[in-house]
Design brief:
By secondary structure, the protein is of the alpha+beta class. About 25% of the residues lie in helices and about 35% in strands.
Length: about 290
């Protein structure tokens, strides 16, 4: 049984600084792209590489969106070498052809978040390429639908799975944090609100933001120590900050120690990974979130 590595991300949909509903915006765009013929869906992502959206499938009840992209590298047809005999033969493909590569991703919509589980590896499309693909089609759509434009663009944050403290150490600045706390704090001594909290979500969220040009890194160290130190009402911490290369990154305690490899089935004749099985494994992985 083969294995595939999975990357974790948050997908966002924004109009400037304003956050938009990612689920609705993404589905609307995918429906538009999916209605186009494959030739119209194709985008050049390098001088010798193309990609296109092959299919998507949305399970509204589960909040799961399966997406399959295909890509290929063309303009190269050197002779083929047999790995056993080391004998060469003429390559039958044309310069316009390339081996098909699949990229599988699953998006889970939960509590306003869009969590992306993306297959990663050699020749697999990155989420940067995929979001650029989507944003290009927003421009194409808006050029032909002047009165019904799609406002906003897609962007993403990577979720590192390394040690929480190590990633926090690497951040130049911590911009904001969300601390998820057990709802019973509402009726406790701290807030002394009503005890009638049956219909309140299990966790309430406290958002902490830094003053301009400042950092709240040391505050997060203290909160994280509470989370890992034993009995506490804190359930989860999600932190957004800038790394040393000025990129923004999110660390989330929910993703620490989560499995990052899934089983995969390969076709013996082509070496391709079985799409139905890949999505079944991604779904199993998403159940933990």
């Amino acid at each position: 049984m083969a294995q595939r590595k999975i990357g974790f991300y948050y997908l966002h949909y924004r109009n400037g600084e304003e956050g938009l509903e990612v689920e609705r915006g993404l589905l609307r765009l995918l429906q538009y792209i999916g209605a186009q013929p494959n030739r119209a869906k194709k985008q050049d992502i390098a001088d010798d590489r193309i990609c296109f959206l092959d299919f998507f499938e949305y399970d509204e009840e589960a909040g799961l969106l399966k997406i399959l992209f295909k890509s290929a590298k063309h303009s190269y047809r050197a002779p083929l070498l047999n790995r056993n005999t080391v004998e060469a033969r003429e390559n039958p493909k044309t310069m316009e052809e390339g081996e098909q590569i699949k990229t599988h991703l699953l998006i889970k919509f939960v509590a306003g978040d869009a969590i992306v589980f993306l297959e990663t590896g050699r020749n697999i499309l990155t989420l940067k390429i995929i979001t650029e693909y989507l944003n290009t089609f927003i421009s194409i759509f808006n050029n032909t639908h002047r009165r019904d434009r799609i406002e906003g663009v897609f962007c993403f944050d990577m979720i590192p799975r390394d040690d929480f403290r190590e990633v926090l150490d690497s951040m130049e600045r911590v911009l904001c944090a969300e601390v998820f706390i057990d709802k019973h704090i509402l009726g406790g001594d701290a807030l002394n609100f009503s005890d009638r909290i049956d219909h309140v979500q299990d966790n309430i969220v406290i958002e902490i933001k830094t003053e301009r040009k400042e950092t709240i890194k040391h505050t997060i160290y203290d909160i994280y120590s509470k989370l890992t130190g034993g009995r506490t009402d804190i359930r989860r911490i999600r932190v957004k900050g800038k790394t040393t290369d000025t990129n923004e990154s999110i660390i989330d305690t929910n993703f620490i120690n989560k499995k990052e490899y899934i089983d995969a089935q390969q076709d013996e004749e082509t070496g391709e990974y079985n799409t139905a099985y890949m999505f079944s494994q991604l779904e199993l992985l998403s159940h933990d979130f």
